[in-house]
Amino acid sequence: MNPTRRLCLHAAALSLLPAWPARAATDGVDHAPWTALLQRHVVLLRGGQASQVRYAGFAADRPALKAYLATLSAVSKAAFDAWGKPARMAFLINAYNAFTVELILTKHPDLKSIKDLGSLFSSPWKPKWIPLLGGTVSLDDIEHGMLRERGRYDDPRIHFAVNCASVGCPMLREEAFTAERLDAQLEQQAQRFLADRTRNRWNAERGRLEVSKIFDWYGEDFTLGHRGITSLAGYLGRFADVLADDPAVRGRIRAGQADIGFLDYDWALNDARRS
User: Fold this and answer.
1) Contact 141/126 with Cβ under 8 angstroms?
2) What sign does the dihedral 215-216-217-218 (CA atoms) show?
3) Count of the separate structural domains present in the chain
4) pLDDT tens-digit profile of 6-36?
5) Cys-Cys with 42: which of 67, 117, 160, 174 at CB 3.0–4.6 Å?
């Protein structure tokens, strides 16, 4: 069975800113079940800068995961549109991450990379198999069509929050994103990822800053004025203290004067059984 057909059948089975205003307690859905699953099955690495996932544990908890996915799928577009921006962002990020875990479980443990779920002509992110907001969408639809749509959120930190089940990706957070804490959670995700020297670092030998390929693929997202920043160099400058140890180098990074290179991306599955 080809990957697109398999995903379609699977779908049938499933049938930022501090100035954000306060909203009612009913704004959004209860993401506590997702937090409970994450706390059981996410393993923190390198002092919390990265994580691995116990997919075997998620498989054992598949009924609880499916129940949470059903809760997400039950939200109507009208209800979603009535929520505040933080609640909508948290919902979409959690949906992306939870449905990605579900996608991995369709082939786990016989899987070395999420890219193995694709084919020669289609990536695993393009098939529309996810019942969400009254339609059937793909992972690409959630990330690129909803979270990254110009003028909707314009927050580059979503790239540190959505997890593509790969070693090179920013960590799957050990708790759900929530409307009440979203800004702080996104900021911590950015700090954690930029502080991870395996994926972002100063290369003294080459005299340049070497960062994740994410900043190459989505560099424009970091130039749209979030917190007044309009360049990738300016954005990375916010994290100079975690990107380098030498005070002089930090000064160059902070001033946006460092040459920037991009590291290869590791698409290996972020499975805890690999370690």
Assistant:
1) no
2) positive
3) 2
4) 444 454 444 433 434 444 445 789 999 999 9
5) 174
